[in-house]
Amino acid sequence: MTLGPEIELRIETQPVPYREALDAMTERNVAIAEGKERELFWLLEHPPVYTAGTSADSKELLDPRFEVVKAGRGGRYTYHGPGQRVAYVLVNLNERARDVRTYVHALEGWIIDTLSDFGVTAFRRDGRIGIWTQDIDGNEAKIGAIGVRVRRWVTMHGLSVNIAPDLSHFSGIVPCGIAEYGVTSLARLGINISIEEWDSALLARVGAFLARLGKPCLQETVQ
Fold first, then answer.
1. For the chain, what is the total number of helices (H) and then of strands (E)?
2. Where are the chain's structural domains?
3. Does the active-site annotation cover 176?
4. What pTM, to 2 d.p., does this model score?
5. In the CATH hierarchy, which fold is given to the domain comprising 7-212?
6. How many CB atoms neighbour CB 131 within 10 A?
């Protein structure tokens, strides 16, 4: 599948080391801002890693059993690893609404809408970063995360959704600084889907995501 001519879609089938992805994103961000490269939607997984945002508190790094990388995005500590699908979104907000809140809200809506395709009711919560749902124990738990950096009005980082990761890996940190609530996944909720099925559902809603940014829907979709 390809998006319109102004956007590149990259889909990885093997885990990409986080530092490698961060370097590639940083380089692409500059190239987009300078008009030398197209925008990019990049779907991938990482080997296990803890990433530290600009507000990370070392007290929330409880057990650094995996590599810890300073990500440069907003937020605190997060975990990435196999079974968690990441979508890095590098778009030029100079060509859309220059509004970071609108952009973050659009990312959140993209996750919520895609989860609904699999029968999961997800939602935002004031004062709590991320996307939440009701876990199997009846309590609210995080199923999706948002992390954003904007340079020269070109975005970096994006979103992640827990498809079927090892949830015990989250215990090495206080995810996003929120200790009162747990973390869940589609697999924990009894929804067993492949990464490919998730990707297809997510990409089917790219047009709606872009529309929230004031961008027309996809100009071309080819399978």
1. 4, 11
2. 7-212
3. yes
4. 0.92
5. BirA Bifunctional Protein; domain 2 (3.30.930)
6. 26
